[in-house]
Automatic annotation (TrEMBL):
<dbReference type="Pfam" id="PF02133">
    <property type="entry name" value="Transp_cyt_pur"/>
</dbReference>
<keyword id="KW-0472">Membrane</keyword>
<protein>
    <submittedName>
        <fullName>Permease</fullName>
    </submittedName>
</protein>
<dbReference type="GO" id="GO:0005886">
    <property type="term" value="C:plasma membrane"/>
</dbReference>
<feature type="transmembrane region" description="Helical">
    <location>
        <begin position="164"/>
        <end position="186"/>
    </location>
</feature>
<comment type="similarity">
    <text>Belongs to the purine-cytosine permease (2.A.39) family.</text>
</comment>
<feature type="transmembrane region" description="Helical">
    <location>
        <begin position="120"/>
        <end position="143"/>
    </location>
</feature>
<dbReference type="GO" id="GO:0015205">
    <property type="term" value="F:nucleobase transmembrane transporter activity"/>
</dbReference>
<keyword id="KW-1133">Transmembrane helix</keyword>
<feature type="transmembrane region" description="Helical">
    <location>
        <begin position="77"/>
        <end position="100"/>
    </location>
</feature>
<feature type="transmembrane region" description="Helical">
    <location>
        <begin position="237"/>
        <end position="255"/>
    </location>
</feature>
<feature type="transmembrane region" description="Helical">
    <location>
        <begin position="35"/>
        <end position="56"/>
    </location>
</feature>
<dbReference type="InterPro" id="IPR001248">
    <property type="entry name" value="Pur-cyt_permease"/>
</dbReference>
<keyword id="KW-0812">Transmembrane</keyword>
<feature type="transmembrane region" description="Helical">
    <location>
        <begin position="275"/>
        <end position="294"/>
    </location>
</feature>
<dbReference type="InterPro" id="IPR045225">
    <property type="entry name" value="Uracil/uridine/allantoin_perm"/>
</dbReference>
<feature type="transmembrane region" description="Helical">
    <location>
        <begin position="192"/>
        <end position="211"/>
    </location>
</feature>
Length: 350
């Protein structure tokens, strides 16, 4: 995908003789209007990664150590900037060549159909982007959704069924071709998507760092009637209030993006312009405040309670289980007949 993007950008820039007048044209917006437009664009960019801000543990849990995740800090902003620059250069060059600022590379390669060489180039570029879309959706969307729905309904779903279900839901039921029908529609969708993801990320952040202090009872997380059930109905009302308290004020802005017939005042429009930042920090504040005054004491434990690792014959254990196995052998000796507790199973991970 990267090579295909490089080649396409180079070709269209050379064909146009540079970026054209786009980079030298005077700004059409000024003052506060420009600032709010910048915030709206930033929110759309954040929306693209707002899902990974919530479900990145689906992938980071396989890291060799906790420091591996810090590579995201420089890598993600760098490549997001590069890809955005590709789009700006391509649109500016397309304006010079065809008189239309094509916002997607698919519209550019659609102009290559007049010659056999152009059609061949379009085929290979489209194939590369098709493979890239499949790869991105499998890694960033299918895996996370399958994990979530398997946890919510293990009787009916496993990872394979969850993947098939989300492929149908995201590929057909949600009509994604409408979302990418135009650049404006796509940006509106990415911006609107953030209003639901921001409170999720904020509540997770507040609960892990501020409320629980990184102290969880891991086995209890998998007990339907455990301490994390939060009452009779299995709902943490503090999280529900924080979620709806953030989303409801943003719904008018969402309605105006979906339907042009909905008109709003400048205040509501401006609020929607930075909905992810607003939603994240407000949900952190609301959730932490509610837990401060109305704590759920059963979940406030003094130290971490970790899970158990079972070592099977012929199966490679991970680093943690190997460390635990070594400690167990030192305590019990090489023979496991000294004590009923000295077995290869139920090794506590500390």
């Amino acid at each position: 995908m990267t090579k295909g993007g490089h080649l396409k950008v180079i070709w269209v820039a050379v064909r146009a003789g540079g970026g054209g007048d786009f980079f030298h044209a005077p700004s059409q917006v000024h003052g506060s209007e420009r600032a709010w437009l910048w915030l709206s664009s930033l929110t759309s960019v954040i929306g693209g990664y707002s899902t990974l801000a919530v479900n990145i543990p689906d992938f980071s849990r396989f890291s060799k150590d906790s420091r591996a995740q810090f590579w995201q800090l420089p890598v993600i902003p760098f490549f997001k900037t590069i890809v955005a620059l590709f789009g700006v250069v391509s649109a500016a060059a397309a304006q010079e060549i065809w008189g239309v600022p094509y916002w997607t590379p698919l519209e550019i390669i659609a102009t290559w159909q007049n010659t056999p060489g152009g059609r061949a180039a379009a085929f290979f570029c489209a194939s590369i982007w098709l493979l890239a879309q499949i790869s991105v959706n499998i890694s960033a969307n299918a895996v996370s959704f399958a994990n979530d729905i398997t946890t919510l309904a293990p009787k009916w779903f496993n990872n394979r069924r969850g993947t098939v279900f989300v492929a149908f839901l995201g590929g057909w039921a949600l009509c994604p071709w409408i979302i990418v029908a135009s650049g404006k529609a796509f940006m509106n969708f990415m911006s609107a998507y953030s209003i639901f993801m921001a409170p999720m990320a904020g509540i997770l952040f507040a609960d892990y760092w501020l409320v629980k202090g990184r102290r969880y009872d891991v086995p209890a997380l998998y007990e339907p009637q455990g301490i994390y059930r939060y009452g009779k109905y299995g709902t943490n009302w503090r999280a529900a209030i924080a979620t709806f308290g953030v989303i409801i004020p943003l719904l008018p802005g969402l309605a105006s993006k979906v339907s042009s017939s909905v008109s709003l005042n400048d205040g509501l429009n401006n609020l929607f312009s930075f909905n992810w930042l607003y939603g994240f920090f407000l949900s952190v504040f609301i959730y932490y405040t509610l837990n401060y005054f109305f704590p759920h004491k059963d979940t406030l434990i003094p130290s971490v309670v970790t899970g158990f690792e079972t070592t099977l014959i012929g199966v490679d254990s991970d680093t943690e289980s190997q460390r635990a196995e070594g400690v167990k052998k030192q305590e019990c000796g090489e023979s496991v007949e000294k004590s009923p507790s000295c077995t290869d199973t139920n090794l506590a991970i500390s």
